[in-house]
Each structure stands twice: as structure tokens, then as C-alpha cells.
């Protein structure tokens, strides 16, 4: 419902008392209430009661992709044997000029088709992991962003990104040319949207970040997100028929709040005021893949409260990402749920890589961990707010990981639970970490040009 001027003074004075449960929503009105109820129903529907099914399916696809790669004689890769293999990222590394290589099963699904621009929606068939049902705007029309401005958050101009994401119908959003978009307020995205940056160099930077709140089926692909700062709040339109009062934004790059079936792929992210990615308050069915993270403290937060037990339904896959220069901690930091961290390349951290509290289940498979030179920061894992007598029961497993420069993973919990009756192909483990360099070689935003393989 619309907010009239007479109520604004009350809302601004009351904002400080609003429970943190509702994030930046200053008025939990008759529009947000049903959205929240529907979002929780989506969480219950998206929850996988046997998460090993998902991890085994991903493992199978990784091995199938690697088997094809090893039989392709045109594919050559650099070695991964020492700490000297740390890549000089943040846009200063040498541009790859060789043949197109889909080096992991997600990329292999779409990347090396020179007609990708004519068949963009094929991307929606490529997601693996807990977000594997995410369709984004696959059933909708294309929306072409032609205007990089964001100067009217109550009545967004057609052709802007904000105008695109508030539409209620499914949309596949693309960009007409290279753009630097400075968001004046948080970008509140409706359900069933794909933000597809392929074919343009798109940066969301030096302004507010992206908010996915009580929504489902969102894909964000191939864009740069960096230098995100806190937003002031105020009246912001979140759909074509509703706007409401928002409190101050935290400065997250991507904030996922009470949302399901979310896929973040090929993002380059750095230097946000709060987290690069937060997923909280009953969010689940999420895949974070092929991203490149640099220059940040709190990288990924999955579950924000030790008292919010609904996050026990949170299930997230973190796969084929490169955690690069000047990162400090939370890659990810987990609470309550089930987290599959598979075939990522950890070349930098300053405190720890993977942490958690409230007995999360963390399955680490086939990652490469290169510890910093600091002798006090060799441990990959970090348990919070619990004595050893408690955290020793948490299921944190390491399978096929590669530990370099003194890195070590402190496992915990009882022996692995009995596996379900999968067939032999499904039971294949994720590729060992010696393959990680090639699996993550093209992490981050890609330079895709129409008519050429991406």
C-alpha cells in the first residue's frame, strides 16, 4: 500500500525500533506480509531433505566434464604445484587468448557456443548444486537496459536497470552497451528475473547494492560489483504497484533475504562496505559459482543470527570460485544449515577461510587452500561462540582437498553418515584439488562478444 506524507514522520522516528528481522523494511505492510509468508512456503518447498543427493549429482557432473576435458587434445593447462601459482588478479593479469575452454560442468554447458547471444536462456539449464532449479526469467521476454542512470527510485525511467527489476512478470535483462551503474538506493529485485551482463562490460559500483528480499528464481550473471556503500533509505519502489519506506542499507554487494532458488555466477566482486554476499533469514536453494572475490574483509555470510533457527533449512553450494587477493575471512561463514564447498581455489586469506557457528554441516571437497605466510593463520577453519566440547560434534568434513604452505583443515563430527543407494556414477567423488586451477581458471566476469565463443 502507498505511504502518505503524514505517516513519514512517524516511520522515521520509529525506524530505530523496528526488529532486525525485517532488514531494511521500515513498514511491514499488507504487501510485505504476504510476500514473507509466500517466501517461507518457497523455502519449505525448496529444502532438500537428503542433501547428499545434490552433492553427489554435482560431483558426478564435475567428473564427467573433466573426463571430456582430458580427452580433448587442444586443452592445455598450467601446473598448480607451488605457492608461486598465485594469480595476479583484479584485472591486471594477462588476457587469455587461446581457444575457448569450458573447464567445469557449468561453463561447459554454454560457454563455447559462438551463438550464445542468440540462445541466452540456455544459461538457465546450466546451474548445478542446491540452486539447480533456478530458472530466473527464462519464461519471460528480454528487457534491454539502455540507460545507466538511477536518479528516480520512486518512478524509475524505462530503460534503466531499476525499471527492469521491479516488473512483476518474468524478464531476462540484458544490456545494450558497456555501463557503469551507480545505484542511489538499494536495487530491490522482483522474482523471476535474470540480470545477464554478457556482451557488455557492466559495473555496479560506488553506490548501493542489490537486494533479493522474499523473492524466488533470480539469476545474476557476468557483472562486476564493487565499492558498494551504505544507502540512506527512504521511499523506494520495489514493484510496479508498491513503494515503501526503507531504513539505511548495510552496504552489501548482494543481499539475499528470505529468498529461494538463487544463482550467482561469474561475478567479480570486491570492496563493499559490509559483505560481498549475504544470505540470511530462511534463504535456501542457492548456488554461488565461478565468481572472483578480492580486496575484502567479510566475504560471504550464510546465516546472520545464532537465534534464527529457520536457517537450519539453508542449503548453499559454493563451487568453482576463486578467493583471491587481500581477503581476510568468511569464505564462507556459516550458521545452522548444510553447505557444500567444492572445487574452489583459495589463494589468499588473512584470518581464516571457512568458519561457522550453530552447528552447520560443511562438506569441503576438492578445494585448494594456500595458507598465508603468517604462522598464526594457517588454519582454514574457525568455529565461533562454542567450546570444543560442542563444536567437536559439528559435521565439518574435508575430502580430497589440497593443503599448501602449511594450511590445515580441522575436521569434526562423527564419521560420515551412511550414503544413500546411489548408482556408481553418482558416487564418484569431486575431482581432487589438483584440478582446481583449471576448474576456476575463468572465474569472474567474462569478456563475451556476440558472434564469438565466450
UniProtKB/TrEMBL annotation:
<protein>
    <recommendedName>
        <fullName>Pectate lyase</fullName>
        <ecNumber>4.2.2.2</ecNumber>
    </recommendedName>
</protein>
<keyword id="KW-0325">Glycoprotein</keyword>
<keyword id="KW-0732">Signal</keyword>
<comment type="similarity">
    <text>Belongs to the polysaccharide lyase 1 family.</text>
</comment>
<dbReference type="InterPro" id="IPR012334">
    <property type="entry name" value="Pectin_lyas_fold"/>
</dbReference>
<dbReference type="GO" id="GO:0045490">
    <property type="term" value="P:pectin catabolic process"/>
</dbReference>
<keyword id="KW-0106">Calcium</keyword>
<keyword id="KW-0479">Metal-binding</keyword>
<dbReference type="GO" id="GO:0046872">
    <property type="term" value="F:metal ion binding"/>
</dbReference>
<comment type="pathway">
    <text>Glycan metabolism; pectin degradation; 2-dehydro-3-deoxy-D-gluconate from pectin: step 2/5.</text>
</comment>
<feature type="domain" description="Pectate lyase">
    <location>
        <begin position="178"/>
        <end position="375"/>
    </location>
</feature>
<keyword id="KW-0456">Lyase</keyword>
<dbReference type="InterPro" id="IPR018082">
    <property type="entry name" value="AmbAllergen"/>
</dbReference>
<dbReference type="InterPro" id="IPR007524">
    <property type="entry name" value="Pec_lyase_N"/>
</dbReference>
<feature type="signal peptide">
    <location>
        <begin position="1"/>
        <end position="23"/>
    </location>
</feature>
<dbReference type="GO" id="GO:0030570">
    <property type="term" value="F:pectate lyase activity"/>
</dbReference>
<dbReference type="InterPro" id="IPR002022">
    <property type="entry name" value="Pec_lyase"/>
</dbReference>
<dbReference type="Pfam" id="PF04431">
    <property type="entry name" value="Pec_lyase_N"/>
</dbReference>
<dbReference type="InterPro" id="IPR045032">
    <property type="entry name" value="PEL"/>
</dbReference>
<dbReference type="Pfam" id="PF00544">
    <property type="entry name" value="Pectate_lyase_4"/>
</dbReference>
<dbReference type="InterPro" id="IPR011050">
    <property type="entry name" value="Pectin_lyase_fold/virulence"/>
</dbReference>
